[in-house]
Amino acid sequence: MGIGLAQAASDSGAASRQLIQFAIPAQSLDSAVLAYAEQSGVQVFFDSRKLAGLRSEGLRGGYSAEDGLRQLLRGAPVRYRFSAAGQVGLERVEDNGEVMELGATHVNSNREGDWVYLTPRSTSVITREQIDKRPPRHAADMLEETAGVYTAVDQRDPGLSVNIRGVQDYGRVNMNIDGMRQNFNVNGHQQRNGVMFIDPEFISSVQIDKGSQSGMGGAGVLGGIASFNTVQASEFLGPDKEYGGRIRAGHGIGELGNGTYFNGSAVFAFGNEVGDVLLGVSERHFGDYRAGSNDTDNLGTQIRLKDQFPQAWQDWIDSEVGDMSSVTRSQMIKLGLNLPLDQRVQLSYLQTDTDSKDAWTWQSADSNSWYYRRSASNDITAKNVAFDYSYSPDNDLIDLKAKLYYVTTRQDRWNAGSTASIGSGNYYAPYTDRFQTDTWGLQLENTSRFYLGQRDSLSVNYGTEMFQDTFKPSSEMVPARSNSSNPFAGGANPEGKRIMASLFADLTYEHDDWLTLDAGLRYDRYRLTGKTGLTTYMYPTGITQVDLLKQRTELLYDVDQEQGRFSPTFGIGVKPGLDWLQLYTRWGRGWRPPSVTEAFMSGKPHGGGNELVYPNPFLKPETSHNWEVGMNIFKESLFRSGDRFAAKIAYFDTRIDNFSFLDTNVDLPGTDGATGVSMGRSAYQNNLQDTRFRGLEYSLDYDTGRFYTRLSYTHMIGSNDFCSKQLYLGGAQKKNISGTEIVELPIGGGMTIPVPMPVYDAVADADLDAQTRCGDIMGNASYMPADRGSLTAGLRFFDNTLDVGARLRYSKGNGANLESHGYSQLDQALWPQYKVWDLYASYWATPQLNIALSMENLTDQAYFVAMGDSNNLSLARGRTLTGMLEYRF
After folding, report:
1. What's the domain range around 73?
2. Is 604 contained in some domain?
3. At 613, which helix (H) or strand (E)?
4. Rounded to two decimals, what is the model's pTM?
5. Which residues touch 750 (CB under 8 Å, ≥6 apart)?
C-alpha cells in the first residue's frame, strides 16, 4: 500500500532538530503511536479504529519529533500534519491516496503509562503527574498507590527500601537510579537491609518490573526491579526551544503545615542538535509533626502499652513526634553530546546529602508520659556517577547501549552512650562510626530485530552486566567490658566484597498483533570474599583425659567462594479475538547468592547488651520459581465517545528455596546439652521450608477527559513457616567414656590409693546436629505484608487547566498482635487497619505557572503505613496542608 505523508507547516515548529531518544518495539500501529506520544511529549490526535490492523516496525534511537514520527509510520498508509507546536493529527489514506473518512472522535493519546496496559507482563509506572498530586515527604510516598509494592517505612530515616510482592532486602529487588544499583546496607532491626537515597524532586518516573527478569538489571533478582528515572534535558527542550527548565517551591501552610517546611528545586536545561546540559539543585526541610488523633482504637492495646499505662499512651497520641528534623540537599549535572552516525554519550552526576536523627520513646519516671530520647544522628552522602553511550543507526540489527557507573554511599553516625551503669559491665561511652558501600557497575546490551513478512517479527535483546560491592565499615567505639574480650564483636556491619557478573539473552516473537511469545536465559556468577569468625567453647578433639573440659575456641573463616547458575524465563500473551483484551502468563527462575552482611556479620548489633550476631560463611544461595497469570484491558470509547478504560489484573506465586532469614535462637559448635534456650543469639540461616509469596493485584484506570478515577489493590495470601538447623554450623559434641585409668587419689598423711576413673574423649553428636527448630525469626518476612489499596477520583475544568480530586488510601492491616503480645518471636505484626483521605488541586494559571494544594489525612487518622517499621513506631502525619508553586520556562 502506498504512503502518503504531509509536509509539516513551516511555522509549526515540528521541524526542530532537537533529538529525542526513542525506544518503541515493533507492535500494532495504534500502540506504537501511544508510545511515541509518551516518549516525545507530542500530543497526537487520531481515530484508533482507522489504524486497526496496521503495524509499526518500531523506533529506536535519537530523532527529532518529526523524523521519529516519519520513521514510525514508514510503510503504513498514514499521513500526518502538525497543526500547532507539540500537536499532530494522523489520517489514514486509501490506495488511491484519498483520505479515509474519519469518525467524529479524535483521541488524545498523550497519556503517560498507557503502555503498561498493553504489555503482557506485570509492570507498573508512577508518573510525575501522580507524584505531584501528593507531594512526597518520604520517598516511599511515591509508591503507595502502586499494586504489589510496599515499603518498610521508618519516618525518621529518609532511606527507601522497596518490597515487591513480599520480597525485599539484600538485592532481591534491584533498586536503581537511572540503572545504577543502590546496594547500601547498614544492619539494624531487620526491617530494611538495603536502602537507597533519592530526591523525589528529581524523579521523572518510576518503573516497577515484577518477578524474575532475564534482561538488563536482573542479576541476583528475585522480587523485581524498581527503576527511579531522573529528569532529562529533553523534557524541557523542544521544537525551536534551546533552553528551558522549571522552578518549584513548596511549604506547609499555617498551623496545618505540621512540620513541613521549605521544599523545592530548580532545574535548568539548554542544548541543540549538538548536545545538551542539565543542571539541578534541590533542598527539603522537615521537622517535628503531630500525628493523627482519630480512630486511635484501631491501634490496639499493645502499642506503647496502652493497656498498662493508658495515661502515658494518651500523652503519646497528643504529643508531637519528636526529634524528626531532617534536611536533604541534592545536586545533579548531566552533559550529553550527540555524535555523528547516530551516537550519543552522556556523563551524569547525582549527589544527595541528608541529615536525620534516630530516637526511641522512653517512659517518664511517673509512668504518665512517653518522651523521645535521641539515640543517634546521621549524616549520609550518596553519590552516583555514570557514563552512558548509545549507538542506534538505521539498522534493525543494531541498537547498542552501554553504561559504566560508580555509586558510593557513606553514613557517618554519632551514637549515644549506653544507659547501663558502669558497674554492670555493659556500659559504653558515646561514639561515632562510619558505614560505606562502593559499587562499580558495567552494562552492555544490544537489540536486533528481524521482520518475517508482514505479520511476524522477532527481536533479540542480549548483553552482559557486572557489578562489585565493597563494604567499608569503621568505628571509634570503645567496647563495653563484657564485650571487649570477644574479638568478633566490633559491630554487625562487616567488611567484605562481592562481585556478580551476568550474561543474558531475551527473545520476543510477535505474530499478527494477537500473539506474543518471549523466552529468556541468563547466566549469573558471583564471587564472595572476606574474613570473619566467632568465639565459642568446645571440647578439644583428639585428647583423652579424666577431667576433659571445654576450652575457649576461635573459629576463623577466610572466605573465597565462587558459584554460577543458569536461570530461564518464559512468557506468552494472547488476544483472544478482542482487540481490547489480552491474556498472559509468565514463568521464571531467579538466583541470589548471599550478601556480605548475611555471610560475615558478627558482633553486638546495639554496641552492648547481651545480644550477639554470628556469621554464616556457609549460607547457600536462594533460588526462586515464580509464575503469574493475568489480563490486560485497554478500551477506548467504552461508555461514551472518547473515554478510555484500562485494567491490569494478575495472580502471582513466588516460591523461594533456601530463603535466608535471621534466626534469633541458634546454638554454636561445642554445644553438648539443652538447645534452643538462647534467644538473642542470632545468625542467618536458610529456611528448610519453602517460602512462598502469593497474591492478587488489581490496577484499574478510567478517564473521560473531564472525569477520571484510578484504583489499585494488593491482596496477599497465606503465611510462611521458618525452620532451620539448631546448630547452624554443626559441631555438636558429647563426652564419650573411652575407657578407665588408674588415678592415685590422696587420702591424707601423704598417702594415696589407686582408683580406676573413667576417661573421656569428645565425639561428634549427630543427633544433636540434626535437631531443627521453627519460629525463631526476626525480619520483614515474619508476616505477610498487609493488604492495601488506593482509590483516586478527580475532575478537570477550564480546558484541563484545573485538576481537583480526592484519594482514599486503605489497608486491611495485620492485627495478629494488636491486642496481645506473644514473645515467642521478637517481631510483632503491628500494622493496624486504616482509611486515610487526601485532597488535592492543581491549577495552571498560565501555560508556565502552576499552583498546587494538597491536604493529606483530611480526617486526622492515627495510622502507620502498611508494613511500616514496627520497631520504630512513629505514627504517620496527621492532617497536613501544603502548597507548591511551579514555574516552567
Report:
1. 20-110
2. yes
3. strand 612-614
4. 0.86
5. none
